Amino acid sequence: MTSRNKWWAKTLRIIGIVLMSLTAAFTIMGGAGTSCVALNPTGFGEKFAPIARVQWLYILFVLVTLAIGIMGVRAVVLLVRGTKNAYRYALIALALGILVGGGHMAASRLLRGSSMPVDMVVYTTLLTLIVFLLFRIPGIWVGVDFAKTATEKTGRQAAAIALGASGLLVLSIQFIMSPTHSIDGINYADVWHTSLTLVGTSLVLVGVARASAWKLVRLALAHNNKTSTA
């Protein structure tokens, strides 16, 4: 059995893909969430009012962060397929996320004395980057190597789990971010409740459907093999 076919290699590969998908989803939601104060900095009390002085900068943060989030989604697709440039593309997306997120944190702390909730997105991105860098340890990389095509089973499993995990994150984000998004008793992380519920539920259902479809394919193949050898 080659290193890539060992259980630990498959598990680490799936963990990496799931972490990347969660980071991408978190980044996109972070960019979308920042649009509220970027477009209306004086509409959320004195805490965010100083942003009005550099409103253009926060609009830029929104656009660039969304673009990086989309890069993250593409990185997940490449990792699942095991394309040659998948690992490098993921590292670039993560590095850009930390760079732009770090700038966002610095600007917010300078203007309003706090950078939450962007901190959580940056720390999540940093964690994922550290994990991906650890994958490059020779003894680990020989099994994980994202530059080599994954087995169909591993790719499908990773895609299904990533979709389900991202869906659960979207469904629960209003609760996770409530402490940093509640102003005057209003949880602004829940203002897009219907949209988040639809997107999150869809992702979970698609993930379950992919996992179920793969099981059906395996059962069909096993049945055909038994029939052909009978």
Uncertain parts: none
H/I helix tally: 8
Average predicted local confidence, pLDDT: 84
Strands of the largest sheet, in order across it? 1-2
Give the CA-based shape.
Answer: globular
Task: Count every beta strand, where a strand is a DSSP E run of 2 or more residues.
Answer: 2
What's the helical proportion of residues? over 70%
Query: How many domains make up the coordinates?
Result: 1
What's the short version?
This protein is an all-alpha fold. It is 77% helix and 2% strand. Helix 1 (7-39) packs parallel to helix 6 (152-176).
Characterization of this structure:
This protein has one domain (3-229). Helices cover 77% and strands 2% of the residues. The chain is built from 8 helices and 2 strands, in the order H-H-H-H-H-H-H-E-E-H. A two-stranded antiparallel ribbon has the order 1-2. A hairpin with a 2-residue loop joins strand 1 and strand 2 (186-187). Helix 1 packs parallel to helix 6. The model has no long low-confidence stretch (mean pLDDT 84).
